[in-house]
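Severity: low
Component: inverse-folding endpoint
Summary: output formatting inconsistent between runs
Steps to reproduce: submit the following structure tokens with default settings.
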């Protein structure tokens, strides 16, 4: 993929995650942290995991030590997490805007959170982060629906149509 294509994907990711966080912001505090039948214990924890994953990958891409993850309890509401998401997604976009095509194609050596050494082509790790986020947005949307609230449309083609309307 080109840097421009990854930037488009990052823009979509920012938009779609922002929409899901907006839907989650309509949940009461009790529902935000209500246990659900999922790998992640509640809507809040799933969304914190999604945002924290971007923090972890950004640190790896920038060659910084792995950031210690933030705790779900630090986000009493979706609004608080949405503010953090805006910061993180801006940093991801800024990183992608400045990276060279050659670096995108180069291997990225990193350690997993369990300490295992790995190496992947950097652009593939960006794609991984974006597909990982899409998976969790889908989970959260499904849980929000099961909890009786309204979900949001996060389809990529819908994003392109909305983006085109906003630009034109």
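Observed output (run 2 of 3):
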């Amino acid at each position: 993929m080109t840097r421009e294509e990854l930037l488009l994907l990052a823009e979509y990711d920012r938009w779609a995650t922002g929409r899901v966080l907006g839907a989650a912001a309509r949940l009461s505090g009790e529902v935000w942290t209500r246990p659900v039948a999922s790998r992640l214990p509640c809507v809040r924890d799933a969304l914190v995991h999604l945002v924290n994953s971007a923090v972890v990958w950004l640190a790896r891409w920038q060659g910084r030590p792995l950031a210690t993850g933030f705790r779900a309890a630090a986000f009493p509401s979706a609004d608080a997490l949405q503010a953090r998401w805006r910061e993180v997604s801006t940093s991801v976009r800024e990183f992608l805007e400045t990276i060279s095509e050659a670096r995108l194609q180069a291997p990225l050596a990193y350690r997993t959170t369990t300490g295992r050494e790995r190496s992947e082509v950097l652009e593939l790790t960006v794609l991984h982060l974006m597909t990982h986020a899409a998976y969790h947005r889908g989970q959260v949307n499904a849980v929000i629906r099961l909890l009786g609230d309204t979900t949001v449309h996060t389809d990529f083609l819908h994003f392109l149509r909305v983006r085109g309307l906003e630009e034109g």
